[in-house]
Structures are given as C-alpha cells and as structure tokens.
Design brief:
It is a single chain. Helix 2 packs across helix 6 (125-133) and helix 7 (144-161) packs parallel to helix 8 (185-193). The chain starts with 6 loop residues before the first helix and ends in a 13-residue tail after the last helix. Helix content is 44%, strand content 15%. The protein contains 9 helices and 9 strands. The strands form 2 sheets. The protein has a 7-stranded mixed β-sheet, with helices on both faces. The protein has a single domain (7-257), classed as Glycerol-3-phosphate (1)-acyltransferase, CATH 3.40.1130. Bound molecules: tetradecanoyl-COA and [(2R)-2-oxidanyl-3-phosphonooxy-propyl] (Z)-octadec-9-enoate (UBL).
Length: 270
C-alpha cells in the first residue's frame, strides 16, 4: 500500500520522457528559479567581499553561474580566446537571443567587465540585486536622452576605473534567426572612450531552443570571439560606418556558425 505514495514521484520522469512541452516549461522554470537562488547566495558573498556595488563582484557572479549549463544540457564551443588577451578598457558587443545568453557571457567574461542592461532588470528580485552589486549599468530605453547620457558617463568611468563593458547592440532579445540592426550606443561609447570593440558572436539557438514550438533540447552553442576593431582617432562622425562595419562582420559570422547561407534575407542595417 505504502508504495502507492511513490506513484506521484514517477509522474515527473514519465512526463520528461514523453512530453517535450513539459521539458520546455520545466527547464525554463528551473532556470529562473535556480538563477534566483544563485543570486540569493551571491548577494552576501558580494557584500562581504566588496562591501557594496563593485565591479569585482562580477568574479563571484561569473563563478556562480558557470555550472548552470550542465543542468540545461548545454555545451559551449569557444574560439578566438586570443582576441580577449588585450589589456585596458574595451567594449564587447554580442548578439542577444535570450536570457540564456548570460550563460555564454559568464563563460568568456573578462576580469573587470560589466554590462549594460535595461532598468527593468533591477526589479527582478535577487537577480536584480546581484546585477546592481556587480556594477551593471542600467539604462531607461524609453527615454533615449537619459540612456545616452548614462552611456556617455559610462565612457568616462570606463577610462577612469579601467573597466570593460559588454553591450548588446541590438538593444533587445531576438530569435528571428538573424541579427537585428544595431543601435548606436555601444559605438558612441567606444569612440568616446577611444577603446577598441571586441565582437563576440553566439550561434543561433534554433537547433535546441524553439520558443514557438515549446522545445528546449540539449545543444551546443558556438561562441566566436572576433579580432578587435580599433577606434583610435575616430570621432562621432565615424560612428555610423563603425556600426555598419561591426554589423556586417558579426552577421556573416553568425550565419556561418549557425549553418545558414550569407544570402538569407534578414533585416538590413541600412
Ligand atoms: C547569479 C545570478 C546572476 C545573474 C546574471 C547577471 C547578468 C545580467 C546580464 C544582463 C543582460 C541584459 C541585457 C539587456 O538588458 S539588453 C537591453 C539594454 N541594452 C541596450 O539597449 C544597449 C544598446 N542600446 C543602445 O545602444 C541605444 O543606442 C540607446 C539605448 C543608447 C538609445 O536608443 P535608441 O533607440 O534611441 O537608439 P539609436 O542607437 O538609434 O540612437 C538614436 C540617436 O542617438 C544617437 N546616440 C546613441 N547613443 C549615443 C551616445 N551615447 N552619445 C551620443 N549620441 C548617441 C545615435 O547616433 C542616433 O542618432 P543618429 O545617428 O540617428 O543621428
Ligand atoms: C520577483 C520578480 C520576478 C522577476 C522574474 C525575472 C527573473 C529573471 C531571472 C532569472 C534569469 C536569469 C538571467 C537574467 C538576466 C537576463 C536578462 C535579459 O536577458 O534581459 C532581457 C533584455 O536583455 C532584453 O529584454 P527585451 O527582450 O527587450 O524584453
């Protein structure tokens, strides 16, 4: 009789085995809940180590997040490490498909590097709090002038405090199998700080993560770190061409590592 109590315990493995939709929701809920938990553990660690908001806390966050990929069945294949072996400040730009990008980001995140995020993330419970402790710069995307001035201030801080910044120049997540046209903030920032840009491309998640079809399988993500693009001597006049150049390089690499042809009709940046 007592063994009947075990039956509900079998439901989860059976659903795992039979329903891809169940796996999808299970993995997504697990991801959010587990990141919340990791953030909760990280908060006191950050406070003890640095006493408050400090970019050095990104080391703790990076360390805490690195194993999450195993639970989700994800693998990273990373190339181009040599391009990150550069001293001083720089701006990393990468494409943005999902919140899972955080896992790839933490695989390669250099020391003294933080990121720019939408201010709504600040309200994401413990995750928001740990982002604040890690020195993440929050911008209000609905108020462009505010966002621009925050980014201009950030360029100064970058030079003064010798920090690196990771920006998602698409400005939003996108899973259209292509890269959205870039916004200009990251490029203004790099030119204002006269710091090089290092592009990093994530391959398409469409072979394992399908939002519409509700599938979240195991998979491998290719991360390609590209050679730096210098901005020394450039002015705000050059921002548009710098932005277009970066977009073209990243889009062709994205299509190449995602197994698509470069002739596909994606959004144009022009
Ligand atoms: C343990 C638990 C751990 C948890 C993990 C934590 C990790 C968390 C990771 C979190 C990851 C979270 C990830 C996230 O949250 S991603 C979302 C947030 N990030 C971004 O949005 C970044 C990218 N956005 C931009 O760059 C935009 O440009 C902004 C927002 C700044 C403006 O937007 P807008 O839509 O308006 O764009 P526009 O580019 O067409 O610009 C319009 C005009 O302004 C000019 N302009 C632009 N900028 C500057 C400037 N600085 N100085 C002078 N001028 C400037 C520009 O040239 C243009 O003029 P013109 O050229 O047409 O004449
Ligand atoms: C109690 C509050 C509950 C809030 C729940 C949200 C918590 C999120 C928790 C765990 C996920 C961990 C990774 C967090 C960082 C990912 C941030 C992210 O990817 O933001 C999206 C933003 O780039 C673009 O947003 P839009 O596509 O423009 O929108």
């Amino acid at each position: 009789m007592e063994v009947l109590w075990l039956l509900p315990l079998l439901v989860v493995p059976i659903l795992f085995w039979t329903s891809t939709t169940f796996v999808f929701y299970f993995k997504k809920c697990f991801y959010v809940a587990y990141m919340m938990l990791l953030a909760m553990i990280s908060i006191p660690m950050c406070i003890v180590k640095s006493g408050g908001r400090d970019i050095e806390n990104m080391r703790i966050i990076r360390f805490m997040v690195r194993h999450v990929k195993y639970f989700l069945g994800l693998r990273f294949e990373i190339s181009g490490w040599e391009h990150l072996q550069t001293g001083g400040p720089y701006v990393i730009i990468s494409n943005h498909q999902s919140s899972i990008d955080v896992l790839g980001m933490m695989e390669v995140l250099p020391d003294r590097c933080t990121t720019i995020a939408k201010k709504e993330l600040l309200w994401a419970g413990t995750v928001g709090m740990v982002c604040w402790l890690g020195g993440i710069v929050f911008i209000n995307r609905k108020k462009t002038s505010d966002a621009k001035s925050v980014m201009t201030d950030t360029a100064k801080i970058m030079l003064h405090d010798k920090i690196r910044l990771w920006v998602f120049p698409e400005g939003t997540r996108n899973q259209k199998g292509d890269i959205l046209p870039f916004k200009k903030g990251a490029f203004h920032l790099a030119v204002q700080a006269q710091a090089p840009i290092i592009p990093i491309v994530f391959s398409s998640y469409s072979n394992f993560y399908l939002r519409k079809e509700k599938e979240f399988k195991s998979g491998t993500i290719t991360l390609k770190i590209l050679p730096k693009i210098e901005t020394k001597g450039l002015t705000s006049e050059d921002v548009s061409s710098l932005c277009d150049r970066s977009y073209d390089v990243m889009r062709s690499v994205f299509l190449e590592i995602s197994g698509q042809t470069s002739q596909s009709n994606g959004p144009s940046n022009h």
